[in-house]
Amino acid sequence: MRQAPDGVYSYLVDLEDTKIAEMVRENEDCTYTILLNSRFNHERNQESYLHALKHIQNGDYEKESVQEIEAEAHK
To answer: Which top-rank group of organisms is this from (predicted)?
Structure first.
């Protein structure tokens, strides 16, 4: 386990499905947990981590539309 700034925890786990690079969960204590897929290489997991962190910093987990969130993230 590693703690990043601002209460973001990341774990490398076997998500089995290679269509899923990462998963993010907002915890009850207002911290976040990022699960990175261990089936991907280090570089891909770095990209996934930064992608998830950007969503957290943008407050995207308070929004309702996934399409809106991803469209904004990929501008």
So the answer is: Bacteria
- pLDDT at position 58, please? 86
The whole-angstrom separation of Cα 33 and Cα 11 is 8
Q: Are strands 32-37 and 8-13 parallel, antiparallel or unpaired?
A: parallel
Provide, for the chain, the percentages of residues in helix, strand and coil under a 3-state DSSP scheme, each rounded to the nearest 5: 35, 25, 35
Q: Give the separation between CA 30 and CA 45, rounded to whole angstroms.
A: 23
CA distance 75 to 72: 6
Report the SS3 class of residue 59.
coil
The whole-model pTM stands at 0.76
